[in-house]
Automatic annotation (TrEMBL):
Pathway: Lipid metabolism; fatty acid beta-oxidation. It catalyses: a (3S)-3-hydroxyacyl-CoA + NAD(+) = a 3-oxoacyl-CoA + NADH + H(+). Residues 5-182 form the 3-hydroxyacyl-CoA dehydrogenase NAD binding domain. This is 3-hydroxyacyl-CoA dehydrogenase family protein. Gene3D superfamilies: N-(1-d-carboxylethyl)-l-norvaline Dehydrogenase, domain 2, NAD(P)-binding Rossmann-like Domain. The lineage of its organism: Bacteria, Pseudomonadati, Bacteroidota, Flavobacteriia, Flavobacteriales. It holds the Pfam family 3HCDH_N. It comes from Tenacibaculum piscium. It is an enzyme of class 1 (oxidoreductase). The record marks H141 as: Important for catalytic activity. GO terms for biological process: fatty acid beta-oxidation.
Amino acid sequence: MNYKNITVAGSGVLGYQIAFQAAFHNFNVTVYDINDEMLAKAKAKFPKMCAAFKRDLNASDADLAVAFDNLKYSSNLAEAVKDADLLIEAVPENPAIKIDFYTKLAKVAVEKTVFATNSSTLLPSQFAEVTGRPSQFLALHFANDIWRNNTAEIMGHSGTNPAIFNDVVAFAKAIGMLALPLQKEQPGYILNSLLVPFLGAATDLLVKEVAEPQTIDKTWMKATGAPIGPFAILDIVGINTVYNINKMASEKSKNPLKIKTTEFLKENFIDTNKLGVSTGEGFYTYPNPAYKEDDFLS
Ligand code: NAD
């Protein structure tokens, strides 16, 4: 892998984090967004990132100054990608917006540039043709709070060149990620293929009144040695996100248990603004949730 110049397209929740992470690891990074106002908004978030890098990674002022030196900004797509080895796309999770973006990008990007999508729920095969370079296109999926939750799932489509796949795995490692290569396309990648059914099984047990949330968490923690259980995870993910996933699934499947779960979450959590860690209360209360107490498992 001899990437040096990285362009990050979309400077929202994930994009500015990816840009800062790559700049911190000494890549030349150009941040691209639809206009200068969006770029100014992203820039304003970097001081917060610095505080997080100091707190969580012991980053020094000198390290952070290097990261800032490595960052450039442009709202002109052709200019932003003119010498990019790798473009990481973090535009909104909307197929029409992504198709429009790749169509424009294909017209201006130089031949060497590899394109990677950070999409959480869409598959690279959906966009491979419109990129104009299917063999140089794949998914590189980061998690929110990238510097701390430093996973990178790398997933090609059937036409991705294996050498390019390996380069992107090496790049992910070079920016401090735990690289997690997938051997084929999978909706939800590895993490959500595991997590969504797991959390769904936990809420099924609750809504069927089989056991209380804390009993379910204790079972999982004691029996497997896991540090937290599914209801603690639900609080971290955010009950609004879980509610939205359940609502969509229940509307599609008409499964009575999922409908009941959706109603249960709405009445007990959404309508009362108990959304989990973000609002200070969900299945547990914060900052000192019961599952962290010494006697929780005794
Ligand atoms: P966001 O809405 O916070 O940011 C999107 C950014 O893209 C905005 O700054 C917007 O101005 C910009 N944008 C819109 N159209 C554009 C275009 N044509 N060209 C360039 N920029 C454009 O979204 P987000 O949460 O950062 O998500 C971006 C991608 O990252 C999505 O595919 C999402 O699935 C994925 N992702 C998000 C998270 C998360 O926790 N938010 C986690 C992992 C992956």
